Amino acid sequence: MTYDRTVHLDTDFATAVTRVREALGEQGFGILTEIDVTATLKAKLDQDVEDYVILGACNPSLAHQALQTDRSIGLLLPCNVVVRADGDHTAVQALDPQTMVSLSGLDALRPVADEATRRLDAALASLTGTVGRG
């Protein structure tokens, strides 16, 4: 089972993060948190890893709809978007919103997952013109 929606960009990391923020914003997602995994692992464990950031993205309307169906669904909301260096490219990855339906077994979440998928795919497509899995 794949659980991600991934695109690769031919751009530097900093530019990719900016473009991802803009693309998500155009689809109604706000960035609530940003975790600099690279800096955190260096500071806490003295470990060096590639440029890696987790953006906590939220579409309030979709989150509200999902929470109305199941209060525990916050555990599975497709909020995290990863931007990371991947060789000569920058990978952008989002949790596949359909994971909410498949893991919870709640068909009532399907309309929310479908709309979240549409919006995330549009954001990813605006970055490259294509959307891929894995």
From TrEMBL:
CDD domains reported in the protein's UniProt record: DUF302
A single MF term (Gene Ontology): ATP binding
SUPFAM superfamilies according to UniProt: TT1751-like
Domain of life of the source: Bacteria
Domain DUF302: 35-97
ATP-binding among keywords: yes
Record carries keyword ATP-binding: yes
Keywords: ATP-binding, Nucleotide-binding
Entries under PANTHER family matching the protein: SLR5037 PROTEIN
Protein name (Swiss-Prot/TrEMBL): ABC transporter ATP-binding protein
Origin species: Streptomyces naganishii JCM 4654
